[in-house]
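Need the bound structure for magnesium ion, inputs here:
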Amino acid sequence: MTRALSVAMWSIYRLLVFALAAASGVTPVHLLEFCPSAGPDCHSDDDAASTSRSSQRAVKSRWNGNVSELIQDLDQFRVSCKKLLEVFPIDEVSGNFVHTVKNCIFSKSIPTPLKGPLSLAAVSKDVIEGILDLDVAVTQSTDFRLYASGGRLLPGSEPLAHRYGGHQFGYWAGQLGDGRAHFLGQYSNRKGEIWELQLKGSGKTPYSRSGDGRAVIRSSVREFLCSEAMHFLGVPTSRAASLIVSEEPVIRDKFYNGNVKTERGAVVLRLAKSWFRIGSLEILSQSGETDLLRKLLNFVIDEHFPSISSNDPDKYLVFYSTVVNETAHLIGQWMSVGFAHGVCNTDNFSLLSITIDYGPFGFMESYNPNFIPNTSDDEGRYRIGAQADVGLFNLEKLLSALSPVFTHKQQEEAKIILKGFVNIYQMRIHQIFKAKLGLLGEEEEDSYLIPFLLQMMEDTESDFTMTFRQLSEVSHLQLHNRNFAQMWALDDLSTHQHFSDWLNMYLLRISRQQNDGDVNRQNRMKNVNPRYVLRNWMAESAIRKAEMNDFSEVELLHHILSSPFVTQETAEEAGYAARPPSWAQRLKVSCSS
Ligand code: AMP
Ligand code: MG
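Answer from helper R.:
Posting the output first, comments after.
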């Protein structure tokens, strides 16, 4: 490499210093430090934790005995709210009306049935059979449509609405809570996993504020498809079992511009190991309910952090440290697939560091750290390149929420842990992007290669998903010859004036990898660079049909996004890996849902 080129690259690098990791106030001093673990994704501790979690849970199903066959009869399917009802006090004020709730974690609240007829718009066989142990055939019944929309209660269900608060767009918003969601119960499956079932869009609760408790078809299709898609992309997330649409009129001003329309209500049956959020702890801390704060923390730690001993005097600190670590990993994974959550308020940040509450999210198309998926986010607070920043902000709020249970010393230690977030995130991002480029081992210039590529992508507005995917599909020889026929994203990228410099560096870098054939590199890269993500235009097209009771495209997308790393003929025919249509650029998504 000539000195001039090296200097040019260095200045590009300095300018960038990880556009993706561009957390303001964040000095990426440790960018060149690497994960001590040998694993490709720096996640060994967490993997160990989750293995121990699942082995701990690999016991006889608590409520269903030894289930060997899939359940054929819905009446045999039992959930339980017992545990939560035993542990936590319940709202003393009964009645499903909006009120300020104190001294409890949940309020009892019965779902309001949707006006029928009801249609099953989508169902996830993977969730129904793989998590809920149900034969997917049962989803075709009227009973299922009622159970999965709040029209009838599952055996054992005592529905609850969760009380939480949150910082929204940077400010404390007070009591929020499940305003349109009902926790139905826990299900203990035959693998020994415990899942919490929730309906979203199932009517008013004490936390509905001025809302109607409903969710419309478009947002529900997006949540159903995206949560399933994220799972198959390998990103920790809540899951979706089914989507029921109704004839219930729901009034929405989609873009808050006075254009009020009547849409239709829908309900997603969604699942997570836990729905507790940072806001679940914040509301207790803010209201001075310290005993309850401790109780909730103990519960979350006992149930979901088995590696933390309940006798450990530092258990809250270890819990905090784990959440800081896992949140950094989660945001890293969002960035790896170009996912912008859209509303990263503390009430939408899970304590288990899974992606929850899908609203105006978006997958970035042209690479742009300033990509804002949500048109309601005027200031771009939740732009894709600021998600790490926001993660830091939210974890700071978590630290404040934990302050009442920390000693002074632990508080100081927690601050140091929080400072470590940036390093963890940057190391993770570095590993992720190295994997996306198929790089093995560690070389000094990796810290040029990645930001250099991202800068070129930004300059040329190259498609994030397809640039990485096509780099995975292209052979060394094709790269060398710059033979990008049919490779529209690489074609765009190659118009950059410094493309040849980058390419030479990249080719040299991968050719230095010992015991690594080109096919190996391609396969490795294809496993981390999806060919299909849920682009807005794809969701929009499926939604337009779904609103006319044609669910075929929802089904098609669901199917394709269940194997996002595999080239599929139907997806190619549908143009899902092609250059997005021109109308895609005009699409907008707001908070209205
Ligand atoms: P979100 O941004 O969708 O996570 O929602 C923020 C808060 O508003 C949560 O407490 C929701 O339960 C509540 N919420 C959103 N939409 C509605 C609605 N239509 N009716 C009642 N509550 C709602
Ligand atoms: Mg939310």
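Comments: Residues 1-67 have pLDDT under 50 and may be disordered. Residues 347-348, 357 surround magnesium ion (ligand 2) (CB under 6 Å).
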